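Example for tutorial group B:
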């Protein structure tokens, strides 16, 4: 199974091609022993310390980059989280915020600026970022763009356990409870790929990656025990009618239970309650594994072109897969979280004070005769966050709480 190279994509610079070729050589060496699972391939092309997309300085966020996330699209998204933060404060939660996978640092900047204006600054704004290059980028930006008093509240860590590890740095207080935010982090985690007639375990084959001629290609392999166990978890719920005759491709993040357990262990203090907001694109199990999604949910982004070929430009493009929020919620419960509910990004944002803030801001800008382009940008940003045809429906948010008890 080889895929045809996509000639509509922009051609990378010579330097980028050289970087990608070095990663390809490294991957060839790894595949000389055996094909790689797609999760291993994804980990290499996204997070290899030297050539990975998120580690090498390749990723560019925002309008001029490969893709635009919600906090890059409009500060109104972050204002929705500031509203949640204020609700958390009213509910007596702790004084900290932790952002997982902070990308360009945009959300952190907007969050802290808005909190300063509303007099509700978190004591500490933790950033858990696995890419050292992005950590450095976020640090530079936050130091340059925030007043010292705000910048000093930001603390970087590279594993969740460090929020509570006094031995790492005795002068840093441990996690005090509060808000944990992750936007488009789960979709960037390595996922295994397989094909099956949905719900029929006897048809499952794992799709691994191997070298064929000059290109990488999918190779069908017997299903591994962890993949079989994970599919077994929801295959029984599958409707048995109207199954396609041909197997379809799909993806699954097998590391999710371990990740959730780590999060629970790090943030689950009885005396320091936390609310988690996990945003991503995806849906319930039936939606993500819909039989007519013959090529799964794998999506690659290169300079604002979205396509389905993860073997193009290794290390230069982003690779994502959809989040199955139903399974995520079940796994979260098993890991000790309370699942508070899942909704679309539009339903979430419209339930905060952001629509009112948006109207006030628009009226203010009109009255003050603000630049029309700025007014249009604000309106466009709001529309893109909530419209069903834009990010409003495809993007979902799951709210989890720790410790696992109900809250208002
Ligand atoms: C698609 S970007 C999203 C960036 C940002 N949240 C935004 O919305 O613009 C994914 C981010 O998650 C980070 N990341 C991936 N896996 C992670 C993990 N297990 N823990 C923390 N950060 C992670 C990446 O390095 C990157 O910063």
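The residue assignment follows.
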């Amino acid at each position: 199974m080889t895929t045809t190279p996509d000639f509509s994509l922009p051609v990378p610079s010579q330097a980028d091609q050289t970087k990608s070729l070095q990663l390809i050589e490294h991957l060839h060496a790894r595949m000389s022993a055996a094909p790689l699972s797609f999760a291993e391939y994804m980990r290499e092309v996204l997070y290899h310390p030297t050539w990975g997309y998120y580690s090498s300085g390749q990723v560019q966020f925002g309008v001029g980059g490969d893709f635009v996330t919600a906090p890059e699209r409009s500060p109104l998204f972050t204002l929705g989280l500031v509203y949640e933060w204020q609700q958390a404060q009213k509910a007596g939660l702790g004084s900290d915020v932790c952002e997982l996978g902070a990308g360009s640092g945009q959300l952190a900047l907007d969050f802290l600026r808005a909190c300063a204006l509303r007099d509700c600054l978190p004591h500490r704004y933790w950033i858990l970022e696995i890419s050292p290059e992005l950590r450095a980028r976020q640090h530079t930006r936050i130091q340059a763009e925030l007043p010292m008093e705000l910048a000093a509240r930001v603390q970087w860590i590279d594993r969740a356990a460090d929020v509570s590890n006094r031995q790492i740095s005795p002068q840093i207080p441990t996690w005090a409870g509060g808000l944990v935010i992750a936007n488009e982090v789960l979709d960037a985690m390595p996922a295994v790929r397989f094909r099956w007639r949905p719900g029929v375990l006897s048809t499952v084959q794992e799709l691994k990656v191997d070298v064929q001629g000059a290109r990488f290609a999918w190779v069908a392999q017997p299903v591994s025990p962890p993949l079989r166990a994970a599919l077994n978890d929801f295959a029984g719920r599958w409707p048995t009618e109207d199954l396609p005759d041909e197997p379809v491709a799909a993806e699954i993040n097998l590391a999710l239970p371990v990740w959730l357990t780590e999060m629970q262990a790090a943030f689950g203090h009885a005396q320091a309650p936390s609310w988690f907001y996990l945003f991503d694109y995806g849906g319930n199990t039936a939606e993500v594994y819909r039989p007519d999604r013959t090529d799964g949910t794998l999506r690659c982004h290169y300079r604002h072109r979205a396509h389905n070929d993860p073997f193009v430009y290794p290390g230069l493009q982003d690779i994502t897969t959809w989040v199955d929020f139903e399974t995520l919620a079940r796994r979260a419960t098993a890991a000790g979280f309370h699942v508070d509910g899942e909704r679309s990004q539009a339903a979430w944002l419209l339930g905060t004070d952001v629509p009112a803030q948006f109207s006030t801001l628009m009226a203010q800008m009109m009255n003050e005769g603000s630049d029309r382009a700025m007014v249009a940008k604000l309106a466009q940003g709001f529309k893109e966050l909530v419209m069903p045809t834009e990010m409003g429906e495809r993007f979902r948010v799951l709210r989890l709480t720790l410790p696992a008890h109900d809250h208002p």
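The longest strand covers residues 200-212. Compare this with the pattern of hydrophobic and polar residues in the output above.
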